[in-house]
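Exam revision sheet. Question 4 asks you to relate a sequence to its structure. Input first:
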Amino acid sequence: MATPSTHRVAVAGATGRMGHMLIEALRASDDCRLTGALDLASSPAIGNDACAFLGHASGVPVTADLREGLSQADALIDFTRPEGTLAHLRACREQGVNLVIGTTGFSEGQKAEIADAARDIAIVMAPNMSVGVNVTLKLLEMAAQALSTGYDIEVIEAHHRHKVDAPSGTALKMGEVIAQALGRDLKDCAVYAREGVTGERDPSTIGFATIRGGDIVGDHTVLFAGTGERIEITHKSASRATYAQGSLRAVRFLAGRKRGLFDMFDVLGLR
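Answer key, structure tokens:
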């Protein structure tokens, strides 16, 4: 492993929007540096310098070869798709590279595979790497415990038109945190759609509403609606930079750790 002053990091999906943000953050970092850049074999950027979009030569080529892309890395940061992340997970496990997963939309079986891999490598997995979002999750836990009766709970999220999963992983995590604080299982109490004559609202449910449009980076609001008052806890992202900075904090947290599955509560000491 690298010393704490030189965390060697590879980026998956290196030519995407989040990949570019991560590479930019790594270039600006004092203690993390880019050592690998992965993308699909079909990407026109294969073979190009990973920092070419910044007008900078890093000496790190974009590659579809997982072994090559991970060969100099202590950790991989992955914000791609579930199938791609699982392929990267297997390569990381084989090569002893730690993993920071910001990908969302995993099935229960896929989550189980990630947990199994954590017996051999250290993994931070969170649906949102933003420090602010994770502090918001802690606030939601506290609010749910205090507002456990007499308040209807709704989670409203908005993202850009290109997002492929709904509700967002962050919205689902908010629902999970609230349900756990209330002693419930989200699978049993979540309502994801309402249409037609639905009847009165079941007070034990947690509702979700999804908005997709434009270039919205990510807005999340949890509404606790009581009689005579409403409490709204909101987080709005104006830039993906906050996800990138949170990811670097996760990389630093993993330094020296050999195995285990962690989340951003662990990284930020919010447990």
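Marking note for examiners. The first strand starts at residue 7 and ends at 11.
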